Amino acid sequence: MKQFLTTMAGVFAGLVLFLVGVPFLLIVMAAGAAKPAPTPSHAVLELDLRDPLTDQDPVNPFASIGRRSMSVMSVIETLERARKDGKVKAVLVRLPEGGMTPASADEIRLALKKFRAAGKAVYAHSQGLYPSGMVASTYMLGSAADEFWMQPGASLQVTGVASEDLFLKRFFDKYGVKADYEQRYEFKNAVNPYLYSDYTPAHREAQLSWMGSIYGATLLNAAGDRKQQPQALRASLERGPYQAEDALKLKLIDKVGQVKDAETAILAKAGKGAELVEFEKYMRASRERVPRPGPAIAVVEGEGAIMTGRDGTANPFSSSSAMYSDDISEALYDAIEDKDVKAIVFRVSSPGGSDTASEQILAAVRAAKAAKKPVVVSMGGYAASGGYWISSEASAIVAQPTTLTGSIGVFGGKFVLGPALERFGVDVRQLNVGGDYAGAFGTGSEMNQAQRAAFAGWMDRIYDNFVARVAEGRKLPAERVREIAKGRVWTGVQARELGLVDEVGGFYQAVDKAKALAGLSGDVRLKRMTTQVSPFQALESAFGVSATSIRTLAAAAWLMGDPRAQGVLDQMAQERLRSSGATVLAPTPVK
User: Fold this and answer.
1) pLDDT tens digits for 504-521?
2) 43-159+240-286: what CATH class?
């Protein structure tokens, strides 16, 4: 009976996949296979930044279904293509009403300024700027445009930077919960909200330091773009908030008008017959289909928490991201073995994670250097803790001025829930066999003295390893690293002064550095090495059905006359040709 029920469940799952999953897959992939509309001869790209940005494109093929989503990397790569495209005359940027990740704003600002340097116009339009997150970064991005527009009556509230933390110590005390953690050292404050009821002096010092550095760097860029003195601009902004009309009088913006007015103005600027084109449509249409031959710079991307293993895409529709050590190290080794690859740009945007996973990735970085292939790290929004560990021995490190980096430290521990549960009649008891340390992480009670000593020694060894890798990679004395480590977070500009970062700049500055280290010049192609999961693989993982079976079902749908399948099968054929290096013909249009 059990076998019968298991078989029936498998048949039912297959039917669901066939009747629901496959048609959905066919529709999505057939849409992707359709030939994009040609770019008008006078195009104005409309870049809408009002939805959150990731640093990199998601690995999961369905992660952005049901919501608008772009990545910083896709935005700057598309702007670079648009800069060289004679059909694209201008860009209209729709600004978010709240803050942006500072380093993301820095990266896009550099791309827009490069676009403007090619003689093309950039207008920015805002429907209001409100004190949510790093709103100064949004203002800075608007200031990088030729004209900064605001909607009539909209609010400009760029008066500073605030950060708020919840401290749970008194709550834990009230209900009998104990946070049993070790930190290395006083600036490693991620667990401070569990241990204290207020900022410690070190926590306060570090947080105010990086906040002030980001705020200062952001206003310095905005002042330069608006041709004002930094102190004067800062004073004007901090006297706010303002309505758009008042902001215009103070020369904090350039124009007041509805978005339709801004669209009309930039279309006129672009020339007769100019047309608005959605940025995402242009992005999909302009991507290079066939790789060019010759020397290449490999691009390896990693975003999110660092952990061991591979991306199993258990949920193909999840938008969460992580850096899996097997995947990232494999991409680096693939770049090592690729004869066309002369250097590697490693894009890192991570708050940290597993030290063992970080060490696996760092070993691949070392291997690339040993193979005479320079590795240049390009830091995104943050590259802290494990994110800095994997970067520490690169040939060079490039960070944005507002990238959060460093945090050379470690923490670990557990929550003790036994006393809290006792109040509700729940008793936690533990049995263990072997050494006393086997029960160290039980939740019923705190570590005993011997367990605490063993755990503290383990934390010390991890910290010492971290310091040693930074000292080796950055060519700094270990004692100097210990002075600037202690778990402290630095901004990119601060890290540059301390020797933790080589240059302040963005992704394309990292590419230029990689070219220089590899002795390359001119227009060198970029070759993305990070594995992208196919739709078939994602569904295979989610439903437990082989990718071959899904392809078979797609072929069956085609045989039964489903016109959506034709585009899928054609697209599959094109991908196989591309992966084999053969010449790729234009895909058959979907009927």
Assistant:
1) 999 999 999 999 999 999
2) alpha beta
